[in-house]
Amino acid sequence: MPVVNELDNIYCIDTLLNNEKNAVCSYIVESEKVCIVDCGPTAAEREILSAIEELGIRRNDVKFIAVTHIHLDHGGGAGRLLKHFPNARVLVHPKGVEHLINPSKLWKSAKSVLGEVADIYQLPEPCEKSRVVVVDDNQTVDLGDCLIKVVHTPGHAPHHVSFYLVESDVLFTGDSAGMYHEGMIVPTTPPPFDFKKSLESIEKMVKLNPKTIAFTHFGFGEGKELHKVYRKTVDWVEIAKSVVEEDGSVEDLRDRIIEQDAEFGELLKLFRNSKIVGMSYMLGLWGLMDCVKRMGGG
Ligand SMILES: [Zn+2]
Q1: Fewest CB atoms within 10 Å of the CB: 37, 176, 181, 222?
Q2: Ligand 1 midpoint to CA 184 (Å)
Q3: How close is the Cα of 216 to the center of ligand 1, in Å?
């Protein structure tokens, strides 16, 4: 049963990559024009297709695959899925288009950064150019009986957007509002993390005042998590500054954050056997160090 949770007409699918539960999810918005938000990587194909079947949705009715950004765990599977959904088009940030059409550079960098986790995600297949649609900030996308509003939310990545489902008051945040597990939240800050843009993006999302957030990692949470992740982003960058100032290592940064943020320690324990989530946490720490150095050290 790939559908693990639902809210109104939104279904949360666990993609079960590498047999890891609660690592990467995808959402299906059941509407006149069905929309998949963050389809996951190529390796999520089977779970997505069986969720569509479980929900009794006809493949022809899937009209949109909305990717919050092109990182493999969010949009890597779009090319493969387009083959199953002949009427679907992919919605993406202007800066993400070329990588969906020709994912070879994206794959190369994923392989070098993620190593075996890239192999878990599997090779992204190219999307046909005519089936990729650029979405601008504030643009709305009509799903027939409901509306999606696009919010550009750079920071985690320059090509990041969030999708706000107006009627349900649900905001799909991809990686722009952190990773959320068991009521605990941590920022997602891989290189080249942009601190200033990330805060501006969170502020933008706070203004929407969503009741619910649909995290890709993982599941539904309350809108107020935005305030929490904002504060943590500020705090963690401060900690990274002091570690960089003292010429500390990434392990020092990890330990220092755990000292000040017990939730991070809890989450590291909870996901100690997870390659996918573990890798994200590690990359986030590298990204913080790198970001602080780029901003001019401690
Ligand atoms: Zn992610």
Answers
A1: 222
A2: 16
A3: 7
Same domain (yes/no): 222, 245: no
pLDDT of residue 236: 98
Contact 241, 235 (CB under 8 A): no
Q: Does 179 share its domain with 112?
A: yes
- The confidence score (pLDDT) of residue 296 equals 84
pTM, two decimals, is 0.97
pLDDT at 297: 63
- Distance from Cα 179 to the centre of ligand 1, integer Å: 8
CA 21 to centroid of ligand 1, rounded, Å: 14
How far is the C-alpha of 277 from the C-alpha of 21, rounded, in Å?
A: 10
Q: List the chain residues with pLDDT less than 70.
A: 297-298
Compute the distance from residue 58 Cα to the ligand 1 centre, in Å.
Answer: 28
Residues 218 and 245 in one domain: no
CA 73 / ligand 1 centre spacing (Å):
6
Residue 105 shares a structural domain with residue 43: yes
Predicted local distance difference test score (pLDDT) of residue 176: 98
Give the end of a domain, one of 226, 250, 266: 226
92, 159 contact by CB (below 8 A): yes
Q: How far is the CA of 100 from the centre of ligand 1 (A)?
A: 16
Residues 194 and 239 both lie in one domain = no
State pLDDT tens for residues 19-53: 999 999 999 999 999 999 999 999 999 999 999 99
**In terms of domains, do 66 and 182 share one?**
yes
Q: Which long-range contacts (CB under 8 A, 24 or more apart) does 293-296 make?
A: 293/244, 294/192, 295/195
Helix then strand count (H, E) for the chain reads 11, 15
